[in-house]
Specification:
The chain has 265 residues and is α/β, with parallel strands linked by helices. The protein has one domain. 32% of the residues lie in helices and 13% in strands. The protein contains seven helices and eight strands; from the N terminus they run E-H-E-E-E-H-H-H-E-H-E-H-E-H-E. Strand 1, helix 1 and strand 2 form a beta-alpha-beta unit. Helix 3 packs across helix 7. The protein is globular.
Length: 265
Amino acid sequence: MGDVTLAVHQPNYLPWLGYFHKMSRADIFVFLDTVQFARRGYTHRVHVLGPGRTQLWLTQHVRKRAVEEQVIHDLAFSDRCWIDRHLKTFEASYGKAPHFDSVFEFLEDRLRAGAEPLSRLNGRLILDLAARLGIAPRVLYASELPPVPVSSPSERIAHICDHFGARRYLSGSGARAYNDVHVFGAHGIELVYNDFKSMSYPQRNLPDGQDFVAGLSIVDALFNIGFDGVAGLLRPEEGQRPPARTIPNTVQSRPNGKAGLQPSF
């Protein structure tokens, strides 16, 4: 399995295009649900574009009991009222978008389908969207794997790679600040970065002359250009898998602040 590429990420709520782009370039994708929940992160919330270029937060309601100490796998919803609110936001923001009917039906069916905890609901949304877009890596949850000794985020991921015999780890560019290249080198793992550059598409809610708004939930692209259009944006070009951006394991990682539009592993 030396040529296997593995990627990980928290099971975020309806994440941005870059999430699915990374997923499309992995052979194995692991939902990292064994890390601490970040209240200001993207696991339970995401931006969409409202009328007049207004960026709106869509936030899932999570139980607040010791929330800062909880791992993602243990998170439960405090209620399900947010589902109706989010669907109404989709209608208000994208009701006149070219692909509203098909995408709204797809989302409504899945949001109302069951009462899973956060990690499972978000994971199911991601998997169903990925399948519809022709993205099909092997997918597992970190909570399903044997526990590993963890001394750092890089050690955690290196042990996950070891578990699957994967010798290549595909990281989001936002993780440059804390990836430890020496840890990956010690495990014999090649560290590569998915330097996704958000590709523009027609956005209905932009006034004439306004710049494209990047980093939004994938639903923005789906409502505007449809499943086939999004699949075309994300489809890796021939010969580009695995990504060519390799970081030698003897080079120090470069802390460079916010390298990506959304935090990523």
